[in-house]
Each structure stands twice: as C-alpha cells, then as structure tokens.
Amino acid sequence: MKKIISIALALVMMMAICVPAFAETAVLGENKVNVETTFNESTDTSYTVEIPATISVAWDDETTAYNVGYTVTSQLLVGASVTVGVAYDTDTDDTNNGIMEAEGTDKKLTYTLTGAGETVFTGVNNGAKASDVGGTDATITVAGFDAAPVATYTGTITYTVSYEAPTTTP
C-alpha cells in the first residue's frame, strides 16, 4: 500500500511540475488596447477666477500689506492657459500708485500695489494663487492718513482675465 501511495504522490508531483511547461507565453506588443479620450473643449475644460470685491483697511494703518489677491481653479486642455492681470486704477497723474477718494473732501489716500502684472495658469489648479505658479500675490499698502480727514475712502484695482486656447488640439 505504501508503494502505491508513493507512486501516486510521485505522479501528482510530476504533473504539478509539468503545468508551467505548458503555460502560454505572452508576446510583447500582442493583445494591446489603445484607449483614447474624447472631449468637448467648450464643456470639458473650465476655469474660475475668484476676485475680492471689497477690502477693509484699518484707519491709520500704513504698515500692513493687505491681501487683494485672487484664486484660480481650472482644468484646461494641454497647451491652454488662463492669464490674470492686476493693475492700479487709471488715475490722472500717471504715477505708479493708486488713489482712494471719499465724498465730501478733496483729500486723497494713496495705495501701493505689489504683485501688479500678469500671471499665467496652465493645467489643473485648485484655488491657486499667483505665488503658486511663480507669480507674486497682490497686496496693497495704504498711505496718507495723516493728511486726510476720517471718512470712507474707495479706490479701484483692475483685474483682467483672458483665456488662450492651445495652438494644436491634443
């Protein structure tokens, strides 16, 4: 009986060893599936630029740089871009500063804007700031409080947004 069991076990072991010898070999490049994506440029790409509507500045604070930056959320085609620009208001004296005026007085406050200029965003961004893509975040510093009566002063910062389509469709 022991001989029969040992012969049976030897046959089973030989069969187990033989299985890999009969395995199919995969040939590189065969059974290849190409997958392509399709998209609609007008609906499948998107961008949103969030720009602050109002900034509150503490009276007589000439040292704080107040954040007037924007954020960009986008999913763009390869080669496409969104450019966001920040600039001073258009004032009559052509100086590199912004003017803030109040009703009832001819006195003005001035502000200095850092981060003026354009920043280009490409690809996927999720609430990205200019500094996230190599630009400078926009801030203002207000001056001239000592020569102006207390009032609510307002000024303007101009933001521009433009979309550049890719030169070739991916």
Largest sheet: 4 strands, antiparallel
Strand content bin? 25-35%
Identify the overall geometry.
elongated
Fraction of residues in H or I helices: 10-25%
Counting copies of identical and different chains, the oligomeric state is single chain
List SSEs in N-to-C order.
Answer: HHEEEEEEEEEE
Second-tier CATH architecture: Sandwich
The CATH class designation is: Mainly Beta
Mean pLDDT: 80
CATH topology: Immunoglobulin-like
Which class do the helix and strand fractions yield?
mainly beta
Order of the strands making up the biggest sheet: 2-9-6-5
Low-confidence blocks of residues? none
Rg of Cα set: 33 Å
What distance lies between the first and last C-alpha atoms, to the nearest angstrom? Answer: 73 Å
Count of strand segments? 10
Q: List the domain count as a whole number.
A: 1
State the helix count.
Answer: 2
Tags for this entry?
Immunoglobulin-like, mainly beta, 170 residues, 2 helices, 12% helix, four-stranded antiparallel β-sheet, 10 strands, three-stranded antiparallel β-sheet
